[in-house]
Amino acid sequence: MRDLKHAVLKLFLENRRESGKYYYTVPSPASYPYQWFWDSCFHAIILSHFSPHDAKNEIFSLLSKQFDNGLIPHMIYWKKGKVINVNWGKDGTSSITQPPMIAYAVRQIFQTDGDLSFVRTVYPSLYHFYRYLLTERDPHEKHLVGIMNPDESGEDNSPRFDDPLNLPPTNTLKENTKRRFQLVDQNIDCKFDAPFCMRNFFWVKDVPFNAIMVKNMQVLAELAEKLGNNDDALYFTQKSKEISSAMRKHQLSHGLFWSVYGKRYQKIKVKTWAIFAPLFAGILTKEEAKELVKKHLLNKKEFWTDYPVPTVSRKEPSFDPKGFWRGPAWIATNWFIYKGLLNYGFVEEAKRIKESSLALIEKSGFREHFNPLTGEGEGAKNFTWGGLVIDMD
Q1: What biological-process terms (Gene Ontology) are attached (predicted)?
Q2: pLDDT digits (tens, 9 = 90+) for 169-201
C-alpha cells in the first residue's frame, strides 16, 4: 500500500496545474486537460490523505467559477485548448453541472484536519449550490432532482440515457456524441433555463445523481450543525428524507431503483451500476440490500465479472466491455459501491471490490476505465480516479 500511495501522489503532482492564484488537478493531461466538477471532488478526497492544504485548493478553484444562481459548472477550461473544445454558451466554463459530491469532499477534508474556518469559508457556496439543485432542478416540488443533459450524470453515454435521447441500445459513441451535442445546442437556445430546458428537451431524474444528493444533504446538515446553523441542518436533513422518499415512490420497482424521465416518471429499465447507488446513501432496507447484493452484484451473469464491477449488466444488449460507459469497470463507481456495501455490513464483498480495483491498477496502471472481463486498461492514461483506491479502507 505504501508503494501505491507513492504512485498516487506522483500522479497527482504530475497532473497538478496552476492558474493565477488557483491550483487544480487535471484528470488526464493528454485526454482531459481541464478541471471537472466531480473529478475535483474525487481529487479533494484523495488529496486529503496527503495534504489537506492541497485538497482545499482543489475546492477553492472549483468554487471560483460558481454561477450567480448557485450552479457549479461541470467544466472549467482555465486555458482552452483543442481537446474537448465544446461551446457551452459561456466563456471559460460549461453551463451544466455534475453529481453533487462537493459537500462530501469538504467534510472529508474537515475530518482530516478539523479546520472549521475552511468549512465556514466554503459553506455559503455549498448552501447556494444545493439550494439551486433543490429549486431549479425540481420546479414542481416532487423532491427528485432532474438533469438536463446526460453529461450531468458524469456518465456521458450510459445506456440509461438511450431512451430519453431516442437512441437504440446498440448505438455507437459517434452517434451518441452527435445526439448529445444536438442537445447542447438546444440548451444554448433555451439559455440553460433548467425548468424550461428539461421540460422541452431532456428531463431525467437519475438514480445515482439523486442518491448522491441524499448522502450530500445528510453531510451538509452535519456541516451546518458544526457551524451552529441549526435551522439549515434541519432543512437539509428534511430534504434528504424527502428525496429518499420520492426515490422510493417514483423509482423503486421489484427491489430495484430505476432512473425515470419526463413528466410521467417513465422508468428506464436498463440495468447499470446505478441499481447499487442507493447503497451509498443508505436508502435501502437491510433486506432490500441483501437481496440486491445476492441477486445482482454477485451474479456472474450480470455484474460479478473477473474484474468487477462493470457499469452495465452483461445481460443488457448494450453491454460492451470496451464501450466507454457501456460496460467497462471504473474505479469511481467501484468506490461508490464499496462505500455502499460497508454501509450495510457487507465487509467481505467490499473487500473483494477493493481487491479487484487494486488488481486492475496493478495490471494496467492508472487508466480511465478497464475491461471487466480481462482487466485490460482502456481510455485515457495517467487518469486520477484510480487514486480512490487509497480511500477504500
Answers
A1: oligosaccharide metabolic process; protein N-linked glycosylation
A2: 999 999 999 999 999 999 999 999 999 999 999
